[in-house]
Amino acid sequence: MRAFKWGVLGGGQMGFAIKSGAVKAGVIRGSDVIVSDPVFNKQSYETKWKSFGAKCKEENKEVIQNAKFILLSVKPQILPEIADELAKLEEDQTVISVIAGQKLEKLESLCGKAKVVRVMVNTACSIGHGAAALCANDAVTAEDFEEIQALFNATNGAVDILPEKGFDAFTALSGSGIAYVYMMAEAMADAGVHGGLSRDYATKVAVQTILGAAQMAAQTKKHPAILKDAVTSPGGCTMAGVRTLEKLGYRSSIIEAIIATQERCQNF
């Protein structure tokens, strides 16, 4: 039996968001988590992890030797550097990879005898409102998969089992897409400041507007175009803004950004 149920390789933002969200939701205990990252002796990551009781180590071997479920949360370019360590994983262990663009086949070749689950999620999982997609290789038992699925169910507003061929598109739309929504909020706040509102108030209103629009779409289940049309009166202020956005390629720029993100995922 392994000393820790949950391990994390890579103590950065995504790994922390997933595990801290799970601890907040009460589905795992912080004391059941061990995390490794070589920068623990240089940066403030360690303080964050220790805030909920996780055990922090600088060497990956501590996690690989002692954890049953291992969250693989490093940058894609780091994988070759830790390949020798990953090769030592055993049959009783399961790797949960959140690395963009890394397919099950490649992960299987790297992770020794371990079972492999591929997951994509965005950072809103830290507050229980993320979106997650999961797929697993054939070696993963139903019991283990259900436990992993429960972890992500507790920290995300939407969790789906998705065929692997859809993962790059999901990564672009949700994993990276959340950053584009933040950019929208920032731009809306800037416009509010230009109009004479204070920075704090403009940001508050921009965020609430996006939150309200998302809740309207989720709760009414109406197509976004229908909800947009309900706000757009003939000859009105909103239509003037819609016309400007169309002239500037608003929708096209979003589409192209997500396509570019997907293509980048495919090139890792």
Automatic annotation (TrEMBL):
InterPro entries: 6-PGluconate_DH-like_C_sf, NAD(P)-bd_dom_sf, P5C_Rdtase_cat_N, P5CR-like_CS, P5CR_dimer, Pyrroline-COOH_reductase
Binding-site list for NADP(+): 9-14
Catalytic reactions of this protein: L-proline + NAD(+) = (S)-1-pyrroline-5-carboxylate + NADH + 2 H(+); L-proline + NADP(+) = (S)-1-pyrroline-5-carboxylate + NADPH + 2 H(+)
One Gene Ontology molecular-function label: pyrroline-5-carboxylate reductase activity
Domain (Pyrroline-5-carboxylate reductase dimerisation): residue spans on this chain: 164-266
Residue span(s) of domain Pyrroline-5-carboxylate reductase catalytic N-terminal: 7-101
EC number assigned by the record: 1.5.1.2
GO terms under biological process: L-proline biosynthetic process
Associated pathway: Amino-acid biosynthesis; L-proline biosynthesis; L-proline from L-glutamate 5-semialdehyde: step 1/1
Primary role: Oxidoreductase that catalyzes the last step in proline biosynthesis, which corresponds to the reduction of pyrroline-5-carboxylate (P5C) to L-proline using NAD(P)H. Proline is synthesized from either glutamate or ornithine; both are converted to P5C, and then to proline via pyrroline-5-carboxylate reductases (PYCRs). PYCR3 is exclusively linked to the biosynthesis of proline from ornithine.
Subunit structure: Homodecamer; composed of 5 homodimers.
Name the UniProt record assigns to this protein: Pyrroline-5-carboxylate reductase
